[in-house]
Each structure stands twice: as structure tokens, then as C-alpha cells.
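The records we work with from here on pair a chain with its fold. Here is one such record, which you should read through line by line:
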Amino acid sequence: MPSKGKVGIIGSGLIGRSWSMLFASDGYQVVLYDSVPKQIENALHETETELKNLESKGLLRGKLSAAKQFSLISGTTDIKNLVKGAIFIQECIPERLEWKQALYKQLDDVIEEQTIISSSTSTFVPSLFCKDMKHKSNVIVSHPVNPPYYVPLVEVVPSPWTKPEFVIKTRAIMEEIGQKPVVLSREIEGFILNRIQYAILNETWRLVESGIISVKDVDSVMSDGLGMRYAFLGPLETAHLNAEGMSNYFERYSDTMYAVSQTMGPTPKMEGPTAVEISKQLEAMVPLNKLQERRNYRDNCLTQLSILKNKLNQ
């Protein structure tokens, strides 16, 4: 089976490896780039192990075997080799703006005209690292949710200069590899997921800081309440169903929602004694030496949830 084309992945950490697996699952030839040869060697070994593990559990994505998927993934320390003939580059380096600016300057000198350069950033709007590029119209953000192999959402965020056809193509590629892209009309700080996530974290902070509820119980409000709804329906559709349509919901609850929202207080700076107390309670719930065990539990739950959602939507 011939590959669908070449995709380059910059960065061999967890996110880069996950992207490699996603593209390989759909038959793309994947080249994983890192400046440190040992990092590539380790990443390839870990990727092969994870693919085999997923296959043994019946959780491997795509129609190809684990062995076939892994055969589509290779590594390089040569950025020219990475970009040559690539239709799509997914950048996954750490969230340091100066590092991204330096990398994109380097890519600008070697990139081909029709290659899309996509960033996994969750922190920076794309204009911050592409504004001085000759090929700034090739740059876009495809922000995954961690871990991207198990959570399909991808936020597609264009810069002010991104070619419209590259936005369309990026969305199509994300759908093709089994992800669920949402496309923003323009860049905005925090994109969508983190703006919503920060609003939730801000209010949970205020509630714990005020002594109204414990960390364990406020997390239960999400995991045993809101989160169970939102795993299948968004907040707006949930509200739509909780009344006789959304217009009726607004009629019933808009005054109450506004009044409660007025009591929520200023945006907190998450530091100081409250940060210490929240960390203390969380470490009692999940000790630091149990974090990986809990991550494995999370990933398994997310996988099972994804399987259930796919069955229900068939």
C-alpha cells in the first residue's frame, strides 16, 4: 500500500509521538525530526512499543497493523530532509516563544511553497512566530488536546495571513486521520478550549479559596456531574435540552445566571497560600509517584469513552 504523502513532525516528545501515530494510522509516511539523535531513537522505540500495546488491547486506530504503521515512521536530524516533499509539517516543540521564532525562521529558508506548517501550540497565537516570515501564509495552528491519540479535538487557528485554502486543507487532513477539528475564524489568545478551561479553573480556585468546597468535591462536580453531560453534549445543547429550547432557557434563567455571575469575583493569580493548599490536597488524592498510574487510568477511560461515543453515533 503506497503512502498518502509525507508528513513531518518536529519534536519527539509525547505530543510529537502521538501525532506520528495518528498520521501513520491513516497511511501517511511520517518523518520525525529532533536535533538530538538519541531522542529520535528513544521516541521510535517508545512509539513501536505503544503501537504494539494498543494493538494487543484492540485499541489501535486505523486499518493498518501496528507493524505496518510503525514501518511508515522514520526519524531524521536534518531539517532539510524533513521538509523535502512534505505536504504538512506539525511542530511540537516546547512552549518557548523565542524557540518557536528561531525554528520558524529556519523553516522559512527551506520550506516548499505548498507545504503547510502547523503548530501544536496551546499558548501563542500564530502571528507571534510567523509575522516576519516570507512564507507566513503557510502557517497555521492545529492545537490538539492532550493526549491527542485518545482525545480527538483539534483547534485549527489561522494567522491573519494564512491562505484560506490551507485552512480548508488542514481541516480536511485532521478529519482524514480521525480527529475532530473546529476552525476559528481568526486568532484569539487561549483559542477556545483554554478560554473555557481557564474560566472553569478560575471559579474552582475562587470556591476552594473561599473555603466553600474541597478540591476533591469540586473535582467531583465535574467528573460526576457536568463532565458526564459534556462528554456527549456541549454546554449550549445541554441548556437547549434543559428547557423547551434555548429561547425558553434564556427566558427562565438569564436573570439568575447574570445575578450569580456577578458574585464570581476577579480573575485570580494562581499563586500564594491557595496554590499551596490546592497542591497539598491534590497530592493527597494523587501522590506524585502515582501520577503516571493515574495518567494511564485517564487514557484508558478516554479510549473507552471514545469507543462508546463512536458506537452511539453509528
Q: What stands out?
A: Residues 105 and 133 are 7 Å apart (CA to CA). Strands lie at 6-10, 29-33, 73-76, 86-91, 116-119, 139-144, 153-158, 180-183. The mean pLDDT is 96. The first strand starts at residue 6 and ends at 10.
